[in-house]
Amino acid sequence: IISSLSVQSQLEGLKLCGSNVGGVGCLALLGLALKDTNVKKLHLCHNDIDDKGLRALVKGLKKGSSVDTLVLGGNASVTTEGLKSLSSLLQSDNCCLELLDLGDMNIGNDGLDVVMDGLATNKSLKLLSLSGNSIDDTGLDALASRRSNLESLSLSENSAFTAAGLRSLSNAFQ
After folding, report:
1. Which residues pair with 129 in a beta bridge?
2. How far does CA 8 lie from the centroid of its chain?
3. Please, how many CA atoms are within 13 Å of residue 69, restricted to the half-sphere of its CB?
């Protein structure tokens, strides 16, 4: 894959969903190779990526990649610790992510709080998917209390919040 990326410099999208990319070594190489490619869309959902793998990917993305779409959904082994590295990417001047999919990663309110820390200064992210993450009213309150440049937010399949939590979120975005 790595050698193909360097030869196929016109490649703008790479979908590796469900491809067992989870190995830290492969993920680190993939992340490091992104700075020399035109890859803008990177889909790594359902790959058993853990905290170490996410840190390696973030390290590569911080080196100046042009990735604007990052799909990590279904990598439920990522914990709050791994999300801290993603948060640092979101705070980075080199971050050009416009779409981030963290669906079905079971990040809960604590993980959401870490992601929102990263969005505090981020100017590029427009769409955030948090579907299926056990987010409740506490998480919605955290979303409502922090400003971001988000234009679209997906909260599908988070059945733990109530109408009051949605009102709080709605009031914040008016």
Report:
1. 101, 154
2. 25
3. 11
Q: Which amino acid is at 15?
A: K
d(C-alpha 124, C-alpha 8), whole Å: 26
Q: Answer for the pair 81, 51: CB distance below 8 angstroms, yes or no.
A: yes
Integer Cα distance of 47 and 87 in angstroms:
20
Angle at 126 between CA 2 and CA 155, to 5 degrees: 100
pLDDT tens per residue, range 124-162: 999 999 999 999 999 999 888 887 889 999 999 998 899
Evaluate whether 145 touches 170 at the Cβ level (below 8 Å).
no
pTM of the model: 0.90
